[in-house]
Protein backbone atom coordinates (compact mmCIF):
# COMPACT_ATOMS: atom_id res chain seq x y z
CA UNK A 1 0.00 0.00 0.00
CA UNK A 2 1.32 3.44 -0.98
CA UNK A 3 0.21 6.24 1.34
CA UNK A 4 0.40 9.98 0.71
CA UNK A 5 0.39 12.31 3.75
CA UNK A 6 -0.43 16.01 3.35
CA UNK A 7 1.18 18.43 5.79
CA UNK A 8 4.47 19.58 7.26
CA UNK A 9 4.19 19.53 11.06
CA UNK A 10 5.02 17.22 13.95
CA UNK A 11 1.52 15.75 13.64
CA UNK A 12 2.34 14.67 10.08
CA UNK A 13 5.74 13.37 11.21
CA UNK A 14 3.91 11.19 13.76
CA UNK A 15 1.48 10.00 11.08
CA UNK A 16 4.33 9.17 8.70
CA UNK A 17 6.11 7.11 11.39
CA UNK A 18 2.94 5.24 12.33
CA UNK A 19 1.92 4.55 8.74
CA UNK A 20 5.42 3.32 7.86
CA UNK A 21 5.18 0.73 10.67
CA UNK A 22 2.10 -0.87 9.07
CA UNK A 23 3.26 -4.13 7.43
CA UNK A 24 0.91 -3.51 4.48
CA UNK A 25 2.62 -0.19 3.63
CA UNK A 26 5.28 -0.27 0.92
CA UNK A 27 5.94 3.48 0.69
CA UNK A 28 5.04 6.72 2.46
CA UNK A 29 5.21 10.04 0.61
CA UNK A 30 4.70 13.42 2.29
CA UNK A 31 3.62 16.76 0.80
CA UNK A 32 5.43 19.04 1.43
CA UNK A 33 6.97 17.39 4.52
CA UNK A 34 9.90 18.81 6.51
CA UNK A 35 13.57 17.88 7.12
CA UNK A 36 12.66 15.34 9.83
CA UNK A 37 10.01 13.68 7.70
CA UNK A 38 12.48 13.59 4.80
CA UNK A 39 14.68 11.24 6.84
CA UNK A 40 11.87 8.66 6.90
CA UNK A 41 9.79 9.24 3.77
CA UNK A 42 9.88 10.62 0.26
CA UNK A 43 8.87 14.31 0.27
CA UNK A 44 7.51 16.32 -2.65
CA UNK A 45 7.31 20.14 -2.89
CA UNK A 46 3.62 20.24 -3.78
CA UNK A 47 1.11 22.69 -2.28
CA UNK A 48 -1.06 20.58 0.05
CA UNK A 49 -3.92 23.06 -0.38
CA UNK A 50 -4.02 22.74 -4.19
CA UNK A 51 -6.59 20.03 -4.90
CA UNK A 52 -5.67 19.61 -8.57
CA UNK A 53 -1.95 19.32 -7.78
CA UNK A 54 -2.58 16.78 -5.01
CA UNK A 55 -4.83 14.70 -7.26
CA UNK A 56 -2.19 14.76 -10.03
CA UNK A 57 0.51 13.60 -7.61
CA UNK A 58 -1.68 10.88 -6.12
CA UNK A 59 -2.36 9.56 -9.63
CA UNK A 60 1.34 9.76 -10.58
CA UNK A 61 2.25 7.79 -7.44
CA UNK A 62 -0.69 5.39 -7.79
CA UNK A 63 -1.41 6.16 -4.13
CA UNK A 64 -3.75 3.72 -2.39
CA UNK A 65 -4.58 6.14 0.43
CA UNK A 66 -4.24 9.87 1.03
CA UNK A 67 -4.21 11.13 4.64
CA UNK A 68 -4.83 14.85 5.10
CA UNK A 69 -3.19 16.34 8.21
CA UNK A 70 -3.91 20.09 8.48
CA UNK A 71 -7.29 21.80 8.59
CA UNK A 72 -6.76 24.28 5.75
CA UNK A 73 -6.70 21.71 2.88
CA UNK A 74 -9.82 20.06 4.32
CA UNK A 75 -11.79 23.30 4.50
CA UNK A 76 -10.50 24.10 0.98
CA UNK A 77 -12.06 20.88 -0.35
CA UNK A 78 -8.94 18.87 -1.19
CA UNK A 79 -10.65 15.70 0.09
CA UNK A 80 -13.57 16.37 -2.27
CA UNK A 81 -11.20 16.66 -5.23
CA UNK A 82 -9.55 13.34 -4.34
CA UNK A 83 -12.89 11.55 -3.91
CA UNK A 84 -14.14 12.86 -7.23
CA UNK A 85 -11.00 11.37 -8.78
CA UNK A 86 -11.76 7.99 -7.15
CA UNK A 87 -8.78 8.11 -4.77
CA UNK A 88 -9.36 6.80 -1.22
CA UNK A 89 -8.87 9.70 1.20
CA UNK A 90 -8.99 9.97 4.98
CA UNK A 91 -10.43 13.39 5.68
CA UNK A 92 -13.85 15.05 5.45
CA UNK A 93 -15.19 17.02 2.52
CA UNK A 94 -15.42 20.81 2.69
CA UNK A 95 -19.04 20.88 3.86
CA UNK A 96 -18.44 18.48 6.77
CA UNK A 97 -15.17 20.29 7.53
CA UNK A 98 -17.24 23.36 8.44
CA UNK A 99 -17.43 21.74 11.89
CA UNK A 100 -13.99 23.29 12.37
CA UNK A 101 -14.19 26.03 9.76
CA UNK A 102 -17.11 27.69 11.58
CA UNK A 103 -17.66 27.57 15.33
CA UNK A 104 -21.23 28.81 14.75
CA UNK A 105 -21.95 25.92 12.34
CA UNK A 106 -20.55 23.44 14.87
CA UNK A 107 -22.90 24.84 17.53
CA UNK A 108 -25.83 24.48 15.11
CA UNK A 109 -24.97 20.82 14.41
CA UNK A 110 -24.54 20.06 18.11
CA UNK A 111 -27.94 21.62 18.89
CA UNK A 112 -29.61 19.53 16.18
CA UNK A 113 -27.86 16.35 17.38
CA UNK A 114 -28.53 16.95 21.08
CA UNK A 115 -24.81 17.09 21.89
CA UNK A 116 -23.98 18.69 25.28
CA UNK A 117 -21.95 21.88 24.90
CA UNK A 118 -21.46 25.32 26.40
CA UNK A 119 -24.17 27.91 25.85
CA UNK A 120 -22.98 30.35 23.20
CA UNK A 121 -23.88 33.46 21.22
CA UNK A 122 -22.74 34.21 17.67
CA UNK A 123 -22.27 38.00 17.86
CA UNK A 124 -22.21 40.06 14.66
CA UNK A 125 -21.43 43.44 16.20
CA UNK A 126 -19.29 44.77 19.02
CA UNK A 127 -22.46 45.69 20.89
CA UNK A 128 -23.81 42.15 20.63
CA UNK A 129 -20.45 40.78 21.80
CA UNK A 130 -20.42 43.12 24.79
CA UNK A 131 -23.96 42.09 25.73
CA UNK A 132 -22.99 38.41 25.53
CA UNK A 133 -19.92 38.96 27.69
CA UNK A 134 -22.07 40.62 30.33
CA UNK A 135 -24.66 37.87 30.12
CA UNK A 136 -22.19 35.02 30.69
CA UNK A 137 -19.81 36.87 33.02
CA UNK A 138 -16.19 36.05 33.87
CA UNK A 139 -14.17 34.08 33.03
CA UNK A 140 -14.90 35.32 29.52
CA UNK A 141 -14.53 32.95 26.55
CA UNK A 142 -14.18 34.51 23.08
CA UNK A 143 -13.60 32.40 19.96
CA UNK A 144 -12.81 33.40 16.39
CA UNK A 145 -15.47 31.83 14.17
CA UNK A 146 -13.09 30.61 11.47
CA UNK A 147 -9.76 28.77 11.33
CA UNK A 148 -7.15 30.16 13.71
CA UNK A 149 -4.60 27.32 14.04
CA UNK A 150 -5.54 26.80 17.67
CA UNK A 151 -4.83 30.41 18.62
CA UNK A 152 -8.22 32.06 18.05
CA UNK A 153 -9.53 31.56 21.59
CA UNK A 154 -9.13 33.95 24.51
CA UNK A 155 -10.14 32.98 28.05
CA UNK A 156 -9.73 35.85 30.49
CA UNK A 157 -11.06 37.50 33.64
CA UNK A 158 -10.49 40.90 31.99
CA UNK A 159 -13.62 42.15 30.20
CA UNK A 160 -11.68 44.73 28.18
CA UNK A 161 -9.25 42.08 26.91
CA UNK A 162 -12.19 39.85 25.97
CA UNK A 163 -13.97 42.68 24.15
CA UNK A 164 -10.75 43.67 22.35
CA UNK A 165 -10.35 40.09 21.07
CA UNK A 166 -13.98 40.04 19.96
CA UNK A 167 -13.41 43.33 18.13
CA UNK A 168 -10.30 41.96 16.37
CA UNK A 169 -12.21 38.81 15.34
CA UNK A 170 -15.02 40.93 13.85
CA UNK A 171 -12.46 42.90 11.83
CA UNK A 172 -11.86 39.84 9.67
CA UNK A 173 -15.09 37.83 9.95
CA UNK A 174 -18.85 38.46 10.04
CA UNK A 175 -19.28 36.99 13.52
CA UNK A 176 -17.48 35.99 16.72
CA UNK A 177 -18.56 33.32 19.20
CA UNK A 178 -18.97 34.20 22.91
CA UNK A 179 -19.37 31.20 25.23
CA UNK A 180 -20.17 30.38 28.81
CA UNK A 181 -17.04 29.24 30.67
CA UNK A 182 -16.71 25.52 31.36
CA UNK A 183 -15.06 24.33 34.58
CA UNK A 184 -13.31 20.99 35.06
CA UNK A 185 -10.41 19.21 33.33
CA UNK A 186 -10.30 18.99 29.55
CA UNK A 187 -10.05 15.82 27.46
CA UNK A 188 -9.12 15.34 23.81
CA UNK A 189 -10.54 12.31 22.03
CA UNK A 190 -9.92 11.46 18.37
CA UNK A 191 -12.73 9.43 16.81
CA UNK A 192 -12.19 7.74 13.45
CA UNK A 193 -15.30 7.97 11.25
CA UNK A 194 -16.35 6.47 7.92
CA UNK A 195 -19.62 8.36 7.48
CA UNK A 196 -21.60 5.91 9.65
CA UNK A 197 -19.34 4.23 12.22
CA UNK A 198 -17.32 5.94 14.97
CA UNK A 199 -14.21 4.23 16.42
CA UNK A 200 -12.38 6.06 19.25
CA UNK A 201 -8.65 6.25 19.80
CA UNK A 202 -7.18 6.63 23.30
CA UNK A 203 -7.95 9.90 25.14
CA UNK A 204 -5.30 12.55 25.74
CA UNK A 205 -4.91 15.93 27.40
CA UNK A 206 -3.04 18.87 25.89
CA UNK A 207 -1.59 22.12 27.24
CA UNK A 208 -2.66 25.15 25.26
CA UNK A 209 -1.01 28.09 27.04
CA UNK A 210 2.61 29.11 26.57
CA UNK A 211 3.54 29.35 30.25
CA UNK A 212 3.82 26.88 33.10
CA UNK A 213 0.79 26.66 35.32
CA UNK A 214 -1.38 27.44 32.26
CA UNK A 215 -0.35 31.08 32.08
CA UNK A 216 0.13 33.40 29.13
CA UNK A 217 -1.51 33.39 25.69
CA UNK A 218 -2.96 30.37 23.92
CA UNK A 219 -0.75 28.51 21.47
CA UNK A 220 -1.24 25.65 19.06
CA UNK A 221 -0.33 23.35 21.97
CA UNK A 222 2.79 23.00 24.14
CA UNK A 223 2.55 19.33 25.10
CA UNK A 224 0.26 16.38 25.72
CA UNK A 225 0.02 13.00 27.39
CA UNK A 226 -1.97 9.80 27.04
CA UNK A 227 -3.73 7.87 28.54
CA UNK A 228 -5.51 9.73 31.37
CA UNK A 229 -5.09 7.91 34.69
CA UNK A 230 -7.66 10.20 36.34
CA UNK A 231 -10.44 9.72 33.75
CA UNK A 232 -13.76 8.29 34.99
CA UNK A 233 -14.51 4.70 34.01
CA UNK A 234 -16.51 4.50 30.78
CA UNK A 235 -15.57 8.02 29.68
CA UNK A 236 -14.59 7.07 26.11
CA UNK A 237 -17.79 5.08 25.61
CA UNK A 238 -19.81 8.03 26.93
CA UNK A 239 -18.12 10.47 24.53
CA UNK A 240 -18.80 8.22 21.56
CA UNK A 241 -22.44 7.65 22.55
CA UNK A 242 -23.32 11.23 23.48
CA UNK A 243 -21.02 13.28 21.23
CA UNK A 244 -19.29 11.56 18.31
CA UNK A 245 -21.97 9.16 17.06
CA UNK A 246 -24.82 11.71 17.23
CA UNK A 247 -22.67 14.20 15.30
CA UNK A 248 -21.79 11.61 12.65
CA UNK A 249 -25.48 10.67 12.38
CA UNK A 250 -26.55 14.32 12.05
CA UNK A 251 -24.03 15.02 9.27
CA UNK A 252 -25.13 11.86 7.45
CA UNK A 253 -28.76 13.00 7.77
CA UNK A 254 -27.78 16.31 6.14
CA UNK A 255 -26.24 14.48 3.20
CA UNK A 256 -22.65 15.43 4.11
CA UNK A 257 -21.26 12.24 5.68
CA UNK A 258 -18.14 12.71 7.80
CA UNK A 259 -15.18 10.55 6.79
CA UNK A 260 -11.99 11.26 8.71
CA UNK A 261 -11.10 11.97 12.31
CA UNK A 262 -13.46 13.95 14.51
CA UNK A 263 -11.47 15.66 17.25
CA UNK A 264 -13.68 16.04 20.29
CA UNK A 265 -12.37 18.63 22.74
CA UNK A 266 -14.34 18.23 25.95
CA UNK A 267 -14.61 19.47 29.52
CA UNK A 268 -15.70 17.26 32.41
CA UNK A 269 -17.68 19.90 34.28
CA UNK A 270 -19.73 20.06 37.46
CA UNK A 271 -22.78 19.83 35.16
CA UNK A 272 -21.58 16.81 33.20
CA UNK A 273 -19.76 16.28 29.91
CA UNK A 274 -19.58 19.32 27.60
CA UNK A 275 -18.02 19.83 24.17
CA UNK A 276 -15.52 22.70 24.08
CA UNK A 277 -14.80 22.41 20.35
CA UNK A 278 -14.70 20.13 17.35
CA UNK A 279 -11.80 19.84 14.94
CA UNK A 280 -11.90 17.78 11.75
CA UNK A 281 -8.34 16.45 11.80
CA UNK A 282 -5.78 14.95 14.14
CA UNK A 283 -4.84 17.48 16.82
CA UNK A 284 -1.28 18.60 17.41
CA UNK A 285 0.38 17.75 19.86
CA UNK A 286 -2.06 15.06 21.11
CA UNK A 287 -1.54 12.96 17.97
CA UNK A 288 2.15 12.56 18.78
CA UNK A 289 1.34 11.02 22.19
CA UNK A 290 -1.65 8.93 21.06
CA UNK A 291 0.00 7.35 18.00
CA UNK A 292 3.13 6.51 20.01
CA UNK A 293 0.95 4.01 21.92
CA UNK A 294 -1.07 2.58 19.01
CA UNK A 295 -0.21 -1.06 18.28
CA UNK A 296 -2.82 -1.67 15.55
CA UNK A 297 -1.74 -1.09 11.90
CA UNK A 298 -2.74 2.51 11.25
CA UNK A 299 -2.82 2.51 7.44
CA UNK A 300 -5.20 -0.43 7.30
CA UNK A 301 -7.55 1.23 9.78
CA UNK A 302 -7.53 4.58 7.95
CA UNK A 303 -8.09 2.86 4.59
CA UNK A 304 -11.08 1.03 6.08
CA UNK A 305 -12.46 4.40 7.21
CA UNK A 306 -11.88 5.91 3.77
CA UNK A 307 -13.74 2.98 2.17
CA UNK A 308 -16.66 2.88 4.63
CA UNK A 309 -15.54 -0.38 6.28
CA UNK A 310 -14.77 0.65 9.88
CA UNK A 311 -17.36 -1.82 11.18
CA UNK A 312 -15.09 -4.60 9.86
CA UNK A 313 -11.99 -3.44 11.78
CA UNK A 314 -10.95 -5.52 14.83
CA UNK A 315 -10.81 -3.68 18.18
CA UNK A 316 -7.81 -1.36 18.29
CA UNK A 317 -4.81 -2.55 20.30
CA UNK A 318 -2.73 -0.26 22.54
CA UNK A 319 0.67 -0.51 24.16
CA UNK A 320 0.69 -0.58 27.97
CA UNK A 321 3.16 2.32 28.21
CA UNK A 322 2.20 5.93 28.84
CA UNK A 323 3.29 8.67 26.42
CA UNK A 324 4.32 12.28 27.03
CA UNK A 325 4.95 14.91 24.34
CA UNK A 326 6.91 18.09 25.10
CA UNK A 327 6.84 20.83 22.45
CA UNK A 328 10.00 22.89 21.97
CA UNK A 329 9.22 26.34 20.59
CA UNK A 330 11.16 29.24 19.13
CA UNK A 331 11.96 32.46 20.93
CA UNK A 332 9.05 34.88 20.60
CA UNK A 333 6.40 32.21 20.07
CA UNK A 334 3.41 32.56 19.82
CA UNK A 335 3.47 36.28 18.95
CA UNK A 336 6.52 36.57 16.66
CA UNK A 337 8.76 33.48 16.60
CA UNK A 338 12.38 33.94 15.61
CA UNK A 339 13.63 31.65 12.84
CA UNK A 340 16.93 30.59 11.32
CA UNK A 341 18.67 29.42 14.51
CA UNK A 342 20.74 26.21 14.15
CA UNK A 343 19.45 23.35 16.31
CA UNK A 344 22.00 21.35 18.32
CA UNK A 345 21.64 17.88 19.83
CA UNK A 346 19.10 16.32 17.47
CA UNK A 347 21.10 13.16 16.79
CA UNK A 348 21.92 12.64 20.48
CA UNK A 349 18.26 12.91 21.50
CA UNK A 350 17.03 10.73 18.62
CA UNK A 351 19.44 7.98 19.75
CA UNK A 352 17.65 7.64 23.11
CA UNK A 353 15.54 4.52 23.62
CA UNK A 354 11.73 4.86 23.68
CA UNK A 355 11.98 8.45 22.46
CA UNK A 356 11.17 10.17 19.16
CA UNK A 357 12.06 13.67 18.05
CA UNK A 358 9.38 14.82 15.62
CA UNK A 359 9.96 17.87 13.43
CA UNK A 360 7.51 20.72 12.91
CA UNK A 361 8.99 24.18 12.26
CA UNK A 362 12.37 23.14 10.87
CA UNK A 363 14.28 23.74 7.66
CA UNK A 364 17.75 23.12 6.22
CA UNK A 365 20.02 26.11 5.62
CA UNK A 366 22.68 26.57 2.95
CA UNK A 367 25.27 24.88 5.17
CA UNK A 368 23.09 21.80 5.56
CA UNK A 369 22.25 22.56 9.19
CA UNK A 370 18.77 21.98 10.58
CA UNK A 371 17.42 25.36 11.70
CA UNK A 372 14.28 26.76 13.26
CA UNK A 373 11.61 27.74 10.72
CA UNK A 374 8.43 28.22 12.71
CA UNK A 375 6.88 28.75 16.12
CA UNK A 376 6.58 25.19 17.38
CA UNK A 377 9.83 23.63 16.23
CA UNK A 378 9.98 20.07 17.63
CA UNK A 379 7.90 17.56 19.57
CA UNK A 380 9.85 15.27 21.89
CA UNK A 381 7.77 12.14 22.51
CA UNK A 382 8.66 9.52 25.11
CA UNK A 383 7.15 6.25 26.33
CA UNK A 384 7.42 5.01 29.93
CA UNK A 385 5.85 2.43 32.21
CA UNK A 386 3.85 5.26 33.80
CA UNK A 387 3.46 9.00 33.32
CA UNK A 388 6.30 9.81 35.70
CA UNK A 389 8.73 7.62 33.74
CA UNK A 390 7.53 8.99 30.40
CA UNK A 391 7.94 12.56 31.69
CA UNK A 392 11.44 11.88 32.92
CA UNK A 393 12.49 10.42 29.58
CA UNK A 394 10.83 13.20 27.53
CA UNK A 395 12.57 15.93 29.52
CA UNK A 396 15.89 14.07 29.35
CA UNK A 397 15.55 14.17 25.57
CA UNK A 398 14.55 17.82 25.63
CA UNK A 399 17.64 18.65 27.70
CA UNK A 400 19.91 17.36 24.91
CA UNK A 401 18.46 19.73 22.29
CA UNK A 402 19.17 23.44 22.21
CA UNK A 403 19.11 26.61 20.12
CA UNK A 404 19.20 30.31 21.09
CA UNK A 405 15.97 31.35 22.81
CA UNK A 406 14.43 27.85 22.86
CA UNK A 407 11.43 27.62 25.18
CA UNK A 408 9.28 24.78 26.50
CA UNK A 409 7.02 24.10 29.44
CA UNK A 410 8.49 22.08 32.30
CA UNK A 411 5.14 20.95 33.72
CA UNK A 412 3.67 18.79 30.97
CA UNK A 413 1.70 15.92 32.63
CA UNK A 414 3.11 16.90 36.03
CA UNK A 415 -0.22 17.21 37.85
CA UNK A 416 -1.56 14.03 36.27
CA UNK A 417 1.57 12.08 37.23
CA UNK A 418 1.26 13.22 40.84
CA UNK A 419 -2.46 12.53 41.10
CA UNK A 420 -3.31 16.22 41.16
CA UNK A 421 -6.20 16.23 38.65
CA UNK A 422 -9.74 15.66 39.90
CA UNK A 423 -13.09 15.60 38.14
CA UNK A 424 -15.53 18.12 39.74
CA UNK A 425 -17.79 16.57 42.43
CA UNK A 426 -20.89 17.35 40.38
CA UNK A 427 -19.71 15.43 37.33
CA UNK A 428 -21.98 12.43 36.88
CA UNK A 429 -21.10 11.02 33.49
CA UNK A 430 -24.16 9.99 31.51
CA UNK A 431 -26.37 11.13 34.36
CA UNK A 432 -25.05 14.69 34.01
CA UNK A 433 -27.00 17.60 32.59
CA UNK A 434 -27.41 17.10 28.82
CA UNK A 435 -28.14 20.73 28.03
UniProtKB/TrEMBL annotation:
SUPFAM superfamilies, per database record: Glutathione synthetase ATP-binding domain-like, PreATP-grasp domain, Rudiment single hybrid motif
Catalytic activity: 5-phospho-beta-D-ribosylamine + glycine + ATP = N(1)-(5-phospho-beta-D-ribosyl)glycinamide + ADP + phosphate + H(+)
Required cofactor names: Mn(2+); Mg(2+)
Stated name of the protein: Phosphoribosylamine--glycine ligase
Entry's Gene Ontology BP terms: 'de novo' IMP biosynthetic process; purine nucleobase biosynthetic process
GO MF, one example: ATP binding
One protein family per Pfam: GARS_N
Encoding gene, per UniProt annotation: purD
Amino acid sequence: MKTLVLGSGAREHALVKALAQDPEVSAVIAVPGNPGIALEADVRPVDAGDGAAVVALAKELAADLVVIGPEAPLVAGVADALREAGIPVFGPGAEAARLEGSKAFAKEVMAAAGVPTAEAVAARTEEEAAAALDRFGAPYVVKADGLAAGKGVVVTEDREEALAHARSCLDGAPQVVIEAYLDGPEVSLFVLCDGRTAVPLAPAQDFKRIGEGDTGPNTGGMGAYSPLPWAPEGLVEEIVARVAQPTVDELARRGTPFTGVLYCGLALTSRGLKVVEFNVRFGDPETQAVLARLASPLAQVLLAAAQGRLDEVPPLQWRDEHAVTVVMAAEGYPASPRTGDPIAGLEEAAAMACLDVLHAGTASNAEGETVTAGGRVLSVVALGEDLAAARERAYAGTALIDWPGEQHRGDIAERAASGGIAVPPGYAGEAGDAS
